[in-house]
Please model this.
Amino acid sequence: KRSIPRHWTPEQAREFLALMEGDRTWPLWAFLLGSGLRIGEAVSLRWDSVDLRRRHARVVDFVSTLGYELAPSTGKSRDAVRTIELDDGLVGVLRQQKSIQSAERLAAPAWVETELVFTKITGGQYHPQFLSRMLASYTKELKLPRLTAHGLRHTSATLMLASGVPPKVAAERLGHADPTLFTNLYSHVT
Model:
């Protein structure tokens, strides 16, 4: 069995985003890389939790999987509910997603309304496992190392630390309850 890397290098992350640009799922992948959210947090993020003017997003809704069924969750840690700041890049990604979603809403013969930021082409919530399989398929097609959606979270953490974000700040952004555990996990970067 081939091992799956925990994260991409910064060059691989940039290459992936460049190759995916123009795909309707590009904003999702870019947001995951830039925000560090867990996939269950991203597929549950609602527009009313996003404030593009004040440049922040509240992570308050979560979903877990029970078998293949989705179940509302309280989050993975006591620090799961949090506010993340949005830089210019993430604000641009969310504006692009809003535009894509508006066009898809108009074009869809039957739109499933959810108020979610990231939705399927006809609305409705994504399943985290579906997105992980989609990412694996894209990376194979693009001849990049296979990575899971959770691997994008690891890549995000690695990129933050490599660019000088203090470990405590990165841990809080990612919703880690224990900054020490976070620092130990990413000691190869620091």
About this structure: The first strand starts at residue 50 and ends at 51. The chain has eight helices and five strands. The helical segments are 10-20, 26-35, 39-42, 88-107, 128-141, 149-162, 167-174, 179-185.
